[in-house]
Design goal:
Arc Repressor Mutant, subunit A, extended, single chain, alpha+beta, 5 helices
Length: 114
């Protein structure tokens, strides 16, 4: 039997960073909403809808850097945001006409009394 040197296991550096990393925890503060994590994208989308009321797919991609706005809208609907989809025809920057969704915020979720 060979004599193997045993090294103590090192704590992974990622474990400590996972506790504070918003990409891992899913927590996003108002000051950290510029990332590409799903929670950061949802935060930007909620902020836009509360301020402006609606956004279309092309705007969400261009202005908010959300490549899959339909997925973020679905997540918000699951969180009780009332959002309607209105189908529109819109020309892209490349000059091609597409049928895209315009998402209209009807009402944010109602706060529940504790």
């Amino acid at each position: 039997m060979k004599n193997k040197k045993r090294f103590p296991k090192k704590e992974s550096a990622t474990r400590d960073s996972q506790k504070t990393n918003p990409k891992v925890t899913g927590k996003v503060s108002k000051t950290n909403n510029s990332g590409n994590s799903t929670p950061a994208q949802r935060f930007r989308l909620i902020d836009w809808l509360l301020k402006r009321g609606n956004i279309d797919t092309v705007e969400a991609r261009r202005e908010l850097d959300i490549l899959s706005p339909a997925a973020r809208i679905m997540e918000l609907r699951k969180r009780d945001f009332k959002i309607e989809t209105v189908w529109i025809d819109r020309e892209t920057d490349a000059g091609k006409k597409h049928r895209i969704g315009r998402y209209v915020l009807v009402s944010p979720p109602l706060a529940t009394a504790a």
